[in-house]
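Board notes (copied after class):
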Amino acid sequence: MTQRQTAPARALDLADIQGNILRPYGRFGFPFTRHIFFNIGNATAGRCFVERLRHEVTTGEPWRGVNGGDNAPLRPEVAVNIGVSFLGLRALELPTRALSAFPEEFADGMAERFEILGDTGVSAPENWDPIWQTARQAPEKHIHLWVSLSAQGKSDGTPIDALYHKTEWVKSAMPNGVTLLSGHKGPSSDYQDSAAIMATLPDGTITPTAKEHFGFTDGIGDPVFAGQYKLADMQADVTGSGKLLPGGQGWAPLAAGEFILGHASEAQELPPAPQPWCFTRNGTYMAYRKLHENAGTFKSYIAAQAASLPGVSGPEEASATLMAKMVGRWPNGLPLEVAPTYVQAQALASKWADIPGILVLPPAKRSPAQAARLAEYELLITNFTYMADAEGARCPVGAHIRRANPRDALDPLFPTAKITPGSALTNRRRILRRGMPYGSSEPDDASEHGVIFMALCGSLFRQFEFIQQQWVQYGSSFNLGNDSDPLIGRHGPNAKFVIPADPAKPGTPYFCANLPQFVETRGGEYFFLPSLTALRQIAEGSVDPT
């Protein structure tokens, strides 16, 4: 890979970009996040609140001893970030000329886009949690501000006390005219908590995992974009997570403008944006979604289908194989393209049995050998394409990860090209995935549990909504008709998932028939995550589009 291909077109101003855009906090020692929502009753109070909050906002600057040098700031105990809905910008009295230039989907809000997103039936807005339902009923209940508090954890698997103190500080910072909105389901009606699922190691240490309530390892293969990491580290980070270069030349970072406003996109374009130009620059859009997981239904369905799955040895192998085929990865995160069979997956897991122990160590405490070992493993689980598996014999074409990131599979030359051509279509649809599980780990449907999912992108319509509508809810892009995503898709009557047979071997496809609804939407909204510059402009009331 050449210097020309890896160097960012423009260095990013990390001190002006909110930190949750640049890094998934869960991987940097923050296994707990609290989401708090506010209504702005008058603009003066709202601007005062933003002024108080903006000085606490965590930026994208490197941290000392983590990913920065001796002069870098220390990692905070609690990372603070802010998002504003379109109605929030209006409540803050941004000029009409500036408001009118925001994208239509952002102005509409998530609830108004329910049909596009597949939020129908049990996932329809009228079935969402109370806070989201009342937000549609009265102006004083509109959700204007989102504040997230991401905290480090104690050795006993609970959040540090600083999370409580920061929560109380945020409440005390509210002036008259700003209201904390309640109506969340869960332990507290005043905020939505999410937390990594914990595991107890043989020595008794309690440590966060990357698991979610269905049992899969989550958060693998997030896209890498220009300027996100130091140039010296980029090649290792970008392999398998950036964009494929034509002609088998390797991987390169995606253009920063796919995720950060005010920078060129993969099409070498700057999207239309409100004036002044500096207001949206270094910000991004976020789709916040609360997704309930019917863990009991999933477990019982897998068990029932496993009983009739051919070519496996026993219920454990059958269940693990079905789960892997639905997602495209084994529950431990190994992709089917790397380990097509249960036996191969088990052998690789044994070979890399030291990885979980390395992962629980803070980066600063890993030895050079451990860091190299982890880097090699991360390449193993991300560096693959679908060129040699066009029929889906290893990873079904309809599997979750193959839909969400088709890699080379949607290039016009696929699969006739001898060398992986890459795909400009896929490069324009990537999203940064943030968030983590919430609720109890009870294996049932009734318990309050699932995933707080946050998608960050430069265009909600072109990236998040396209994936959700065209790739998750329909199968036409993959020649699968109306078959939806087997895990997170909307499943109507007679919904199915097809596990193709290997064309090189005797056998027939296996049909997972009558898919039940595994995931339900319980709330959500679109937010603009402003830069530090924009937060100052909002607080000062100085957003001037002239």
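Comment from the instructor: The first helix runs from residue 3 to 6. Residues 1 and 250 are 7 Å apart (CA to CA).
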